[in-house]
């Protein structure tokens, strides 16, 4: 059976650890999201060393989702201080965390039930909290894959196959594009706006899962990959995108292309066993890529993905492995101060 970005079948519901471990013991939190812990009492030495090393190269914050304590919650490391925080402790899974452009807030998804697969697009709600885990609030029910607008005034998400934009000032949402309409006429996922007229999307069913850009002004769809592809994201400040495509050492690789020169090229394909790449994200300064990679397995919510960071243009061998848990670490984001 051919396997795309979502895998061939659902083997385990999101929120349950693949191989439960007690790697991190956080201080007690209030129910749901509350006071984040000051540190992880049992963080692996290899993880602490990796984050400290990265902190000598870049000043910023790293956030990601992990089920290392049995349920998918959000974890954060301040690279400047080495402070490790568990941001959420909720019986329902949390994932797909994204820093606001100023780094002060984090948008994320929370499951509507204790056990839910990431494939259930309508089973997640859009939440926002401060970057330290305080002041959480639910913004939208049944939203999927939120990304911030470049100016930070709104959040783009997918709902009922529509690209939506939530305005933080008014608390209202409006439709940016209907997936069933031209020029897409397909199932839309992972929408992200570069400007008012350009939206990068993953598009399903034409004839397979692929990625491209909608030019809203011209009512035109610009295909980026001809193959099976997903998880497209903009490189801030330009007309370049990166995404996950078939091929490479581990059957997946991170690709990039420019709208001005759309010939795809490999951005990175790790030259070792952790070469099944997913969850790419480029920092707003365009200098760093952060993503997840597995040595084996594919299921996004249960395979042993580890988090990696790499300075664009450096040798692939210099990519830093940040996590060393046997559980599922995924959808990271790196905010550079």
Can you characterise this structure?
With 337 residues, this protein is mainly beta. It has one domain (32-336): TolB, C-terminal domain (Neuraminidase, 6 Propeller). It is built from one helix and 26 strands. The strands form seven sheets. It has a four-stranded antiparallel beta sheet, with no helix packed on it. Strand 3 and strand 4 form a beta hairpin. The longest helix has 11 residues, at 45-55. The chain is globular and about 50 Å long.
Which key features would you list for this structure?
globular; 337 residues; 3% helix; mainly beta; four-stranded antiparallel beta sheet; Neuraminidase; 26 strands; single chain
Total tally of structural domains: 1
**How are helices and strands ordered from N to C?**
EHEEEEEEEEEEEEEEEEEEEEEEEEE
Helix content: under 10%
Q: Please mark out the parts with pLDDT under 50 across 5 or more consecutive residues, or reply none.
A: 8-13, 16-35, 37-41
CATH class: Mainly Beta
Give the neighbour order of strands across the main sheet. 4-3-2-26
Distance between the termini: 44 Å
Measured by DSSP, the beta-strand proportion falls in over 45%
Which fold name fills CATH's third level, the topology? Answer: Neuraminidase
Please give the largest β-sheet. Answer: 4 strands, antiparallel
Count of DSSP strands: 26
Radius of gyration: 18 Å
Mean pLDDT: 88
CATH architectural label: 6 Propeller
CATH superfamily (homologous) name: TolB, C-terminal domain
